[in-house]
UniProtKB/TrEMBL annotation:
SMART domains assigned to the protein according to its UniProt record, in alphabetical order: PH
Region (Disordered), start-end ranges: 529-548, 604-710
PROSITE patterns reported for this sequence: PH_DOMAIN
Protein name in the entry: NIBL1 protein
Amino acid composition bias (Basic and acidic residues), ranges on this chain: 604-613
Pfam families reported for this sequence: Niban2, PH_Niban2
Family membership: Belongs to the Niban family.
Length: 710
């Protein structure tokens, strides 16, 4: 699928947000659209009326915290020398025991709280998914510009003697460059401004967070302007450069090979000694540390997919065949983008620890590898679901009765699981190779720098001046270093596959063209299960459609009643109505939290049969197999991407072959909402009754009453 979540909402619901300006907790209606921005509205009615949102958050670079202790520890470390004395009031008071905090090393922080642990877990999984998606903000579709950008950032940091992985290489290009500036600028500002801050420790910490956020916004705006100008300049010069490359391609290649041979003769002997003494003995240990949690995560993906399809099949047996198929398939089609159901897969990767290896190879954090593997898991799950969906759709028209349908589902499940095993093996092996290179290459460059770096300048004279833009000594040097260790890495991964460790397969086991139906995938119109098999009514008006926007995550409870401290419809409809009720916490008042808890307790006594805080928008009354009120989505309309067999992928196994490591038990027979920009980060604060069209996130235009956050 190219755009699997187009016109869908991942999740929506109510949660409390702490407003720093007036030190009060407000009930907000939060919507997570397909681009994973967090959009906060005054309430649900404001969302349905298409009023401008209060806040737009791009969560790239943020950490999701679920306790005040975690947050206080990070805040204390951000301003050294300023630590509140024990017994003093904390920097933040939460009215419930279930906080959810978005923390950023440079930008402003966001504070939320929920009423129950179940809601905290669900929203925590949604927030984590938003962070994971936004961190991966540089499009991989660009095979030239994206690697050139990330290589330039890495080489810039290496010039500053900063080797190894970098946690803040996240978000789009402007965000990455802003993080790069702040990494150097913030320590200087902290030393200059920190000693001059006045007041109690908590007040100084709050002031420092606001200063850091204001500087980050300024840096972002200036960086964006300069980066956009640079991209425009590159686009303008590109035709002339391409013309030169095509004209002189033979000479460029010859010159590059000559330069590489000279650098290789100088560098390779030293690099091989370094690899033999400092890298080779540890490759197997690094690989084993990577393989265990990664393979457990992919095995969990397989298990979740198997369980969902098997449950669907059992429910079809019990509840009436084809009539229920559309309902279940609409729910299954977005399984990969269900943060709560995928959480068990992602959690396996959180166990990754390189221990002593992390310090030896200067790996600052393993989060880069964790998030990369989790993105692969989501992609493999969606590939498996979409393959299953397409093959089942081909069979549905030929089936008579639910017994045949159930048998067909079981056969297709076996085929897809078999293919998943081979595909996940290929993806994991590629991930292991990339991770090993990402760990060892910076280490080697750092080791070789004292003896090799200074000598590289003399190789510049080997390049003709006309080719200086196309052949770079530094790049050629890194290619030679990569060649010195690549053979050992490839051999280590190959041996793991030969030994069938963690269900890896040898490349020679990947068979080609074993299933002719594979070529049919993606050649038809995208599947609309609701329209074809669900007997859906005619299209709803736009307002009703927005009110019942399709979303991926099921609601906690379908409750049309007023939420605690939510603005009623009559309040918003009256232009002269006062401000909506707030959860007030007077500054410096130690009784604020107690009063809020008492008020919430009274609210829960009034409605004992219901949950105290409904955490998702109401949906149609369709009830899923699990018993909760489920919102089922209809696949989006872009053309699907065909799954074509290649050297990296194993086409389907024959239907009779069960997938290794699992048995299949026999069976009896959003509509368009206000969405933040995908490419820019931002927050907007708008008047609650503004009638102007919504302003997109990250806008550089200023207007009264709107504040852009980065």
């Amino acid at each position: 699928r190219q755009v699997p979540l187009e016109d869908h909402v991942i999740y929506s619901g109510n949660l409390f947000q702490y407003i720093e300006d007036n030190k009060k907790w407000r009930n907000r209606f939060c919507v997570v659209p397909h681009n994973y921005g967090l959009v906060l509205y005054e309430n649900k009615l404001a969302y349905e009326r298409e009023l401008p949102p209060r806040v737009l958050i791009n969560s790239a670079g943020y950490k999701v915290l679920t306790s005040l202790e975690q947050y206080v520890e990070l805040v204390n470390s951000s301003l050294p020398g300023v630590t509140p004395k024990s017994g003093n009031s904390p920097i933040l008071k939460c009215p419930t025991d279930f906080p959810l905090i978005l923390w950023h090393p440079y930008a402003r922080h966001y504070y939320f709280c929920l009423m129950t642990g179940k809601e905290q877990e669900k929203w925590g999984a949604v927030f984590q998914d938003c962070v994971r998606h936004c961190n991966n903000g540089i499009s991989e579709d660009s095979r030239v510009e994206a690697p050139a950008f990330t290589d330039a950032v890495r080489m810039y940091r290496q010039c500053k003697e900063q080797y190894g992985t970098w946690d803040m290489l996240c978000g789009n290009q402007t965000q990455v460059l802003s993080n790069l500036v702040m990494e150097e600028l913030l320590p200087e500002l902290r030393n200059a401004i920190g000693p001059r801050l006045k007041g109690k420790a908590q007040e100084r910490q709050r002031t420092w967070i606001q200063i850091s956020d204001a500087i980050y916004r300024m840096v972002y705006e200036q960086t964006k302007a300069q980066y956009d100008a640079m991209v425009a300049k590159c686009d303008q010069e590109r035709p002339q450069m391409e013309s030169s490359i095509r004209t002189d391609m033979d000479q460029i290649i010859t010159s590059k090979e000559h330069l590489a041979s000279k650098i290789r003769a100088f560098v390779l002997p030293k690099a091989e000694i370094c690899v033999r003494n400092h890298v080779q003995p540890y490759i197997s240990s690094i690989l084993e540390a990577l393989m265990t949690p990664t393979s457990q995560g992919f095995a969990e993906v397989r298990e979740v997919f198997f369980k969902e399809v098997t449950d669907m099949n059992m429910n079809i047996v019990n509840e009436g065949g084809l009539e229920k198929l559309a309902e279940y398939m609409e729910k299954l089609s977005h399984l990969a983008f269900h943060p709560v159901k995928m959480q068990s897969c992602y959690e396996k990767m959180e166990q990754l620890k390189l221990e002593g290896l992390q310090q030896r190879f200067d790996v600052s954090s393993t989060s880069v590898f964790k998030q990369r593997a989790q993105i692969h898991m989501r992609q493999q799950m969606d590939d498996a679901v979409y393959t299953f969906e397409t093959l089942l759709h081909q069979e549905v028209g030929k089936l008579q009765g639910k017994d045949e349908l159930c048998k067909s589902i079981q056969r297709i499940l076996e085929r897809v699981l078999k293919k998943y095993d081979y595909d996940s093996s290929t993806v994991r092996k590629k991930f292991f190779r990339e991770a090993l290179l990402q760990i060892t290459i910076p280490f080697l460059l750092k080791k070789l720098a004292p003896t090799c770096k200074a000598e590289l300048a003399k190789f510049q004279e080997l390049i003709f001046e006309d080719f200086a833009s196309f052949i770079l000594v530094e790049n050629t040097y890194e290619e030679v270093v990569l060649q010195s260790v690549m053979k050992d890495i490839m051999q280590a991964v190959k041996e793991a596959a030969v030994q069938r460790k963690h269900n890896l397969y040898r490349d020679s086991m990947v068979m080609h063209n074993s299933d002719p139906n594979l070529h049919l995938l993606g050649e038809g119109i995208p599947i609309d299960w609701g329209e074809e098999h669900g007997g859906q009514p005619e299209a709803e008006p736009a307002a009703d459609k927005r009110r019942r926007a399709k979303q991926v995550v099921s609601v906690i409870q379908d409750d049309e009643g007023a939420l605690p401290y939510e603005v009623g419809a009559e309040v918003l409809m009256s232009p002269s109505s006062p401000e909506p009720p707030e959860l007030a916490m007077p500054p410096g008042s130690p009784d604020g939290v107690a009063e809020i808890r008492e008020a919430l307790a009274k609210e829960s006594i009034v409605e004992p049969a219901e949950e105290r805080l409904t955490n998702a928008s109401p949906t149609s009354g369709a009830e899923g197999p699990s018993g909760d009120k489920a919102l089922h989505t209809v696949p989006a309309s872009p053309a699907p991407r065909a799954e074509v067999p290649s050297g990296d992928k194993m086409p389907y196994a024959t239907p009779a072959s069960p997938a290794p490591g699992a048995e299949v038990p026999p069976l009896p027979a959003e509509t368009a909402c206000h969405q933040p920009s995908d490419k820019e980060t931002g927050e907007e604060v708008a008047p609650p009754v503004a009638c102007s069209p919504p302003q997109l996130a990250g806008t550089t235009e200023s207007m009264e009453g709107v504040q852009t956050e980065f």
